[in-house]
Amino acid sequence: MDQKQKNQLMPFVTLVLLALTVLLISRNNDLIFRDKGELSVERDRSDPETIVFTWRNEVEAPMARRFEEAWRDWKNEGDRVVIDLHSPGGAIAEGQEVIRIIERMKRTHIVDTRVRGRRACYSMCVPIFLQGEERTAAPNSTFMFHEPTAYDFFTGEKVNQPKFERDMMSQRFFDIYFVNSPMDPVWRDKLAREWKGRDLFYSAKELTDQHSNIVTRLE
After folding, report:
1. Cα–Cα nearest to 150, from 63, 64, 92, 87
2. φ, ψ (nearest 5 deg) of residue 88
3. What topology is assigned to 35-218 in CATH?
4. Are 38 and 66 in contact (CB under 8 A)?
5. Range in 22-36, 111-125, 200-214 the model is least confident about
6. Rounded to an integer, what distance in angstroms lies between the CA atom of residue 90 and that of residue 122?
7. One MF term from GO for this chain (predicted)?
8. In 9-73, which ranges are E strands?
9. Does the structure show a pLDDT above 70 at 89?
């Protein structure tokens, strides 16, 4: 094969390699997310009209898709949904999609949230927990609040943003998920002062004793 023929083949070879790269990325993503984050759904044994959604993982894909699929299957069952959480938090965008699905649930069902004994609800898990009408938690369950952190979409590494960008993102998160929530306004103002650059941990009992209105009932 002479150089001219090689040059003519180069665009074709490049397209083939590009197509193979896209296919490999797609298959790799399928493998990564295929079984990650299983959502368990069942009727409450003590109340058949209550459907329990149990999530034990990060607030990451495919959480919203799991909730969407499960709600499609269960939306004509019962009259109440309990969302049982144990999560270290995760992506704001994924959490927002989950909240949108919960808002659809509320059109036809009572939706409550729960965190059981020695379980945790950190970071983006808290705005999801706050969607419950009744928000139950064991006294020794743990909640964590911190300012949102930006991560590079491709590498997953933390991005060092300029201070004004961090402050703007933090304020927007606070306004969307905490100002427009059942959180007690006095406690919320205290949180706004104290969470700058810190991870704040509270047990459910501490949140109740401080009248935060995050937890409405101790289990």
Report:
1. 92
2. -85, 10
3. 2-enoyl-CoA Hydratase; Chain A, domain 1 (3.90.226)
4. yes
5. 22-36
6. 9
7. peptidase activity
8. 39-44, 47-55
9. yes
- Between 164 and 76, name the one with better pLDDT: 76
Confidence of residue 19 (pLDDT cuts 50, 70, 90): very low
Q: What is the DSSP string of 77-140?
A: S-SEEEEEE-B--B-HHHHHHHHHHHHHHTTTSEEEEEE-TT-EEETTHHHHHTT-SSEEE-TT
Amino acid at 58: E
Strand order in the sheet with 217-218: 39-44, 47-55, 80-85, 110-115, 135-137, 217-218
β-pair partners for 82: 52, 112
Task: Give dist(CA 11, CA 15) in Å, integer.
Answer: 6
3-state secondary structure of 30: helix
Do 113 and 82 contact (CB within 8 A), yes or no?
Answer: yes
How distant, in Å, are the alpha carbons of 149, 150, 169, 210 from that of 162? 12, 11, 11, 34
Domain positions in the chain are 35-218
Average pLDDT over residues 39-63: 97
How would you label 79-108 residue by residue, b for 16+ Cβ within 10 Å and e otherwise?
ebbbbbbbbebbbbebbbbbbebbeebeee
Q: What are phi and psi of 216, to 5 degrees?
A: -95, -15
